[in-house]
Write a structure and sequence with these properties.
By secondary structure, the protein is α/β, with parallel strands linked by helices. It folds into 2 domains: 218 residues, NAD(P)-binding Rossmann-like Domain (Rossmann fold, 3-Layer(aba) Sandwich), CATH 3.40.50; 36 residues. It has 9 helices and 7 strands. It starts with 11 loop residues before the first strand and ends in a 7-residue tail after the last strand.
Length: 265
């Protein structure tokens, strides 16, 4: 493998769910490595600002695509727009997800559960299949879906989220077996506690319920990991970049945990 083949120069990537945190970090990492990128999210103005920021820093073409990723027709349209605008599609990174309120299985809002099934499984895998069809035309590509550690740790009252994310992981691994003959790789990156506003908000809410201190709760959670720290969005982006690029050319059907040793197994 030649050194020049290790970058994403001349490639095109889609980052679905390119909001703050992991989505932004992934889009920036891909562009820094040479890819032109379509960034996708629901809200137009923040997305346009993100695209302009990444384009200015990296010199790459960065196209903002406003879309509801739970709408299958819009999933199809965003893939078509990416190919029409940027010429091809070599990589897809699925960051978008739908959480939902905490609830015991016995108290589940089953209509809400179906919404999570649709978004986290049906729409995610539909977008994967649309992207794979385009990648096949260029002799291959790479898909990376973002998983959830809670699907492994099985936290109480999170089954609406964890079961649908677990289904997505199984579907991704199965797809990897199906599309490998077309030169397409499918993997999952599963983060641990990832720094940013979402994690800060979680510890603030925990502190409000327990009467504790949010910073101490965060520090205690970090100490529970093998490396005694939280994960940063850039750590997840580096894992995504490795799997998308030719550096990971023989890795497919894998769930890669990036969690600082919060869970080892």
């Amino acid at each position: 493998m030649k050194t020049q083949d290790r970058s994403l120069e001349g490639k095109v990537a889609v980052v679905a769910g390119a909001g703050p945190g992991i989505g932004r970090a992934a889009a920036l990492a891909l562009a820094r490595d040479g890819a032109d990128v379509a960034v996708v999210a629901r809200r137009g103005p923040p997305l346009e600002a993100l695209a302009a920021e990444i384009a200015e820093e990296t010199g790459r073409r960065v196209v903002p695509v406003t879309a509801d990723l739970g709408d299958l027709a819009q999933c199809e349209s965003l893939v078509e727009r990416t190919v029409d605008t940027l010429g091809r599609l070599d990589a897809l990174v699925n960051v978008a997800t739908l959480g939902g309120p905490r609830s015991a299985v016995a108290d589940m809002d089953w209509e809400g559960y179906l919404e999570s099934v649709h978004f986290n499984v049906v729409a995610t895998m539909k977008l994967c299949s649309l992207a794979a069809a385009r990648m096949k035309a260029h002799s291959g590509g790479s898909i990376v879906n973002i998983g959830s550690l809670s699907s492994t740790t099985l936290e109480l009252k999170l089954s609406r989220y964890t079961s649908t994310k677990a289904a997505m992981v199984v579907a991704s691994k199965t797809m990897a077996r199906e599309v490998g003959r077309d030169g397409i790789r499918v993997n999952v990156v599963t983060p641990g506690y990832t720094s940013g506003e979402g994690l800060d908000r979680m510890f603030r809410e925990m502190a409000e319920h327990t009467g504790g201190d949010a910073e101490e709760l965060s520090a205690r959670a970090a100490r529970e990991t093998a490396l005694h720290r939280h994960v940063d969005p850039e750590d997840i982006a580096e894992a995504v970049l490795f799997l998308v690029s030719e550096r990971g050319r023989n890795i497919t059907g894998v769930e890669l945990h990036v969690n600082a040793g919060l869970w080892i197994g």
